[in-house]
Structures are given as C-alpha cells and as structure tokens.
Amino acid sequence: MSAYNDHLRNTSQYLLPLVKPEPQPGKYDIYPSFRLANDAIFSDEGMLVYIDLPKNELQYRARAGSVTNLGAARPEDPKAMYKRFYFVDWPVLNRHKQKIVDRIDILVDGQRPDAVPWMEGADFREALHRISRNCFRVRPWFEPGAWGGTWIREHIEGVNKDVPNYAWTFELIVPENGLLFESSGNLLEASLDWLMYREALEISATPYIFTFKLYDWLRMDLNGEPRDLNIRRGFDNLNFNRKGKAVQQELISRPVLLNEGSDWKQYHLLTHPDHSYDVHRYHFETVVTVETRNKCHVLSLVEGSSIRVETANGFSQHFNYAETFVLPVAAGWYRVVNEGEHEGVLVVAFIK
Fold first, then answer.
1. Distances (CA, A) of 107 to 96, 194, 204, 217, 279
2. CA-based, 20 to 30 A from 18: which of 57, 145, 222, 343?
3. pLDDT of amino acid 44
4. How far is 352 from 344, CA to CA, in rounded Å?
5. Other C-beta atoms within 10 Å of 231: how many?
6. 130 is in which domain, residue-wise?
7. Is 41 found in the same domain as 181?
8. Is residue 297, in this structure, part of any structural domain at all?
C-alpha cells in the first residue's frame, strides 16, 4: 500500500490547511476512498474528510503500476487487478461508503494532489438532492480496445486523439461514471454511485457483466497479445432455440406508432420479454413534451445536432448529438426543444 499511502500524504498536505480544527486540536478523520484504500476505522470526533477518485483514473494508475488492490502488497497485472476491483474491492468499500454518506464533512476530488478541489459535505448532499429532481448527464469515459474504430474520435469533440482507436464509450454505468460540479470555474468530480446511495435513485441494471469470446478473428489486444477465448463457458450460455424463424419473430424490434402531434411522433420499440427495459423513440421538428409516468428515463439524442431540455422544476440544460442523459422520476415531466435545423430523434429507455 506504499504507493497509496504516498498519494494520501501528498493530498493531505494540501487539504489539511483548509480544514478548521474542532475544539480538540488534531481531531481529523481523513477517509481515503480510491475504491482500493484501507477501510479506515475512525472515531466520531473531529471532521470526516472523504477523498474520492474516479474509477477511470484508478485504472490508469493500475496500468502504471502505482496502486494496488485492497490489502495487496504490490501491483499485479492490470486485467487481474480490475477484476479484483470490480468483484471484491468496490463492493466491500461501497457498502462502507453508504454508511458514511450522511456524515462526511468534506468531499475531496483526489485526481490531482497538487490542486485539490473540495466541497463541504452539506453542500454536496444538497447538490445530490437537486440533481435527483432534474435532468443531468454524467462525465463519460472513452476507452480504446482491440475491436475499436474511429467513429468516436471523428464525431465526439474533446476526446483524446492520441489513441489507436476507441472501442468503448461508458455513457451511463453507475460503477464507472462520475458527476461534475462547477463553482467559479473550478471543477470537482464525485462518483455517480453517491447519487444512488443518497437519493435511492436506481438507473443502472448491468446483469450482463461477462463477455465469453468463442472466436476473436485472430485479433490481438492493444499489447499485441492474443485475447483469451471462453469456449466452454460461451457454449454453456448459448440459447440454441434462437435460430431460424425465431430470430425474425422474437429478436427483431418492429417500431409501433403510439402517439403523434402536429410535428412529432412517438414510437414504441418493442423489446424481448426477457429484457428488463422498454424503449420509446420520439421524432420531432420543434418541441415535444414527455411525462415520466413514475419511470426514470435514460435518453440519447441519436439524430439532430442539439436540444434543450426543460423540467417541471424550472431547470434547463443543453445536450448535443450522441450524448446520454437522465430524467429522474421526480422530474415529473419535461419539454424537449429542438435547437438544430433538422428533425431531432430522441431515444428514451426505462424499466418495464
């Protein structure tokens, strides 16, 4: 844990001057999160400071060999470390995280030890409360991969161009994405799962967390090594009834027109009975109003350049082509205003 401890010391030297001591000098609780740090045992006295770290940053550090898994003495292969993060470290530490969310006095973004943004716990919790009642977009995460291409690099502004390709865009996965807060030009990032724990907002269902590769077209990974095949487990999970006419009848969605107005149409994109989610699609020229109907909506603009979303609470936010965002149940209803010159197409997903 030496690399982690060094990081904590580097961060703490900038943070401690910002913390006002309690009546008893020296009573501070610095709780390092990082999803891999020691599960600190702290007292009820003094201030509780939580140092957060986005999971993409954690994985960059794992690849650099500068961090370890929970309780490990040294770094391992990054792939093995990620699996241990995902299945052991994060679940263990996140359970503790849920217990302390209401007690945190200061939340710190630990990405840059030489310029530490921080936020008072009460302000952080109030911000989460407001987010849970309006539309929001998380900070996405883009990753190269063996089967990646150039579409993201060519169509999404602001991504790193110095990569061989992009295979992944993590737009809205609770364990992976973060929330950005801005004040006077300063940015602070906190992991998205805080919103789940504090406001009981469940927007992520990712049961299909395994990929079993039966054949990989002789492609190498980004390190030039063959990728693992999972033939036995892959065949164990194949449904051999899904072939022939069953594919045409059960697995191809056929849009059904549900409703329409003067310049908009709402379609139902039927999903398989085994799917937990349903999908609607809106085509609109100017404005369309949508009710959440006690469902949390996850949306993406798939055609058109930009839109403005206005909530019943008076909140307004702009979103661009290919961006994913969320309308919580508490938003009630929302208006989508087309800001582009051509028809907008908005995909809306929600739990059945």
1. 15, 11, 24, 46, 36
2. 57
3. 62
4. 25
5. 11
6. 2-139+177-199
7. yes
8. yes
d(CA 325, CA 171): 8
Query: Hunting for tokens 């990728």 — which residue is that?
Result: 227
The tokens for 308 are 């403005």
Task: Identify the weakest region by mean pLDDT among 169-173, 312-316, 325-329.
Answer: 169-173
The beta strands (E) that lie in 250-343 are given as: 256-260, 264-269, 277-284, 287-291, 297-303, 306-311, 316-320, 324-327, 333-338
User: How is residue 284 annotated by DSSP?
Assistant: E
- High-pLDDT (> 70) share of the chain, %: 84
Confidence of residue 35 (pLDDT cuts 50, 70, 90): very low
pLDDT band at 147 (very low <50, low <70, confident <90, very high): confident
**Concatenated DSSP letters of 59-92:** HHHHHTT----TT-SS---HHHHHHHIIIIIHHH
Same domain, 81 and 191: yes
**Residues 128, 49 share a domain:** yes
Tokens of 240: 């051999």
**How many domains are there within the chain?**
2
Strands 28-32 and 47-52: parallel
pLDDT in tens, 62-102: 999 999 998 999 999 998 999 999 889 988 888 888 889 99
Return the H-helix or E-strand segment holding 28.
Answer: strand 28-32
Is 320 within 8 Å of 342 (Cβ atoms)? no
Distance CA 24, CA 342 (A): 64
CA dihedral 313, 319, 325, 331 (to 10 degrees): 10
Band (pLDDT 50/70/90 cuts) for residue 208 is low
pLDDT, tens only, 278-289: 999 999 999 999
282 to each of 8, 32, 158, 299, 306, how far by Cα in Å?
48, 44, 28, 10, 14
The tokens describing 207, both together, are 């049961």
If asked whether residues 257 and 188 sit together in one domain, one would say no
Same domain for 22 and 108, yes or no, is yes
